[in-house]
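Example (one chain per record):
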Amino acid sequence: MKKYALIISALLPTLVTTDSARAQSKPDYIAVHATLTSEGAKAVATTAIEYARTRNAPGAAIAIVDAGGVPVYLERLDGTFQNASNISIGKARTAVLFGKPTRVFEETINKGRYAMLALPEIAPFTPLMGGVPIELNGQIIGAIGVSGAASAAQDDEIASAAAAEFAKQQLASMTQVTHIPAAQVKDGYQQDVTLTRTAAYRVNASRRTSPGEAEIHLRDTDIFYVQQGSAEFITGGEVVAPRSTSNVEIRGSEIKGGEVHLLKAGDVITIPNGVPHWFKSVKAPFIYFVVKSTSP
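Predicted structure:
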């Protein structure tokens, strides 16, 4: 069965596990503020497709939206009717914006509460089964919408199974203890790589040889520990020529104003989400350890 995929926004992957990392799970509960990323959205869609195939669904359109109802990923299988993609997006947006599976609204209307049909005047509203919120540790981080399976009930079954499996896998990854050997960390600094990543945080071995663009992270708080080199680093102020590179990041050419920090080996600096920051100048090689903590 051929499929067509569209990645609508490019965000950070939800999980990267290095082959040489040694890990074990200990805690049975963890509080998380997570973000649904493009790779996470694709993982949900892949699970939905696999589930649909094992249940002999004739076709399906699967849409994934983030917590704000913005489409992140869309996939449509051959044989699915033409408008299935738009309907699946509507189901997903309804599920995330109202915080409930869309089956609730279809069942309510079928029981005679037709006044709910007026809701399109105030919000996107597709009261058809097949839209399910994607939750992680009690927080809604997105939603999946499915349309074009054998029945409305099967749409809902596929969406529910995919959302549940994704949450299960993500919680397992976030309770995992990861040990990265020193040699691997050292090699990482030579290549500027991500050492480990979950939906709640990311750890990088970073290397910079020149100034970069000004940035604002809308969800990530950055924590830098400088290992080698020095830099003139600006925080605050106003980003010049800002543009959105995703729904969680803004970039620009430089910063006007702001506070100047002269970073050197041994320094630690934290940049809360929403704060503009910019490497204005760098004495290369500038090597630093980065922890990115994700907030809603």
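Caption: Residues 152-174 form the longest helix (23 residues).
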